[in-house]
Specification:
The protein has 277 residues and is mainly α. The chain is built from ten helices and no strands.
Amino acid sequence: ALISAFLFASCSGGSKSKSVSATTADVENAAEVIQYYNTSLNVLSNMVKEKDVNAVLGYMEQKGKVPTVLAIAPPAVSEKDTLALMNPGSCFNEATRQNLKQSYVGLFNARTKFYANFDRYLSYLKAKDYSKADKLLDVNYQLSKEMAEYKQNVFDILSPFTEQAEQVVLADNPLKDQIMAVRKMSSTMQSIINLYARRPVFEGARIDYKLIELKDQLEAAKKLPAITGDESAMKSYQAFLDQVEIFISKVQKVSEKAEYTDADYEMLTSAYETSVI
């Protein structure tokens, strides 16, 4: 999260010397994990845009009886980033490297099939072959779910490794606990948005579970002792906590409807993005 970077920078002077328990290799491995995590965040936020996916599904649900959606194609992913994601480094164990590779292969394939099916759907509509067109909607429902699951799998796989890496990199940073609390809550908020955007079934139970997790993380974050000598960073930290509370209230509000809407999706993403600025 952007606020994490800000908090890290605010104490950069104190974070240059690492704990004596961390070797140079430990620090290098930790930095590699964090770099992979950051690359994943960047790629996943761009390559699978939930609003675009739902725009496609919505158009297919209406059987083309709505204004034509703008041409939507899978966002481009740089070859450099793709290569990096498909080749996790030795900072991860072999089982984790395989799980990450499988998740990304599955995600890339599902995304390609999803948009290819939409192109086929449009061609069937043009040819007035409605029988074949209707069959593609169920297929794309499944593919959209697979994309969301693969995306969440990557976050879940990386979470413990990233937390451990931050423990090393931030060893001498006075705001270490606050920074890590911010990352955990940011990750949970991302998961909630990911779950909310799924169609056609509303993932109410899973959203509720994640919401409880977020509330627990927020309460723990509130109990962290204030760090003296850096009032600006602490003010930003408190502002983040306030925004998390607002996000929680908005999730509770949209959950009562038990259905996806573009307006509520925009509301949730806006609340999340406000929290990390």
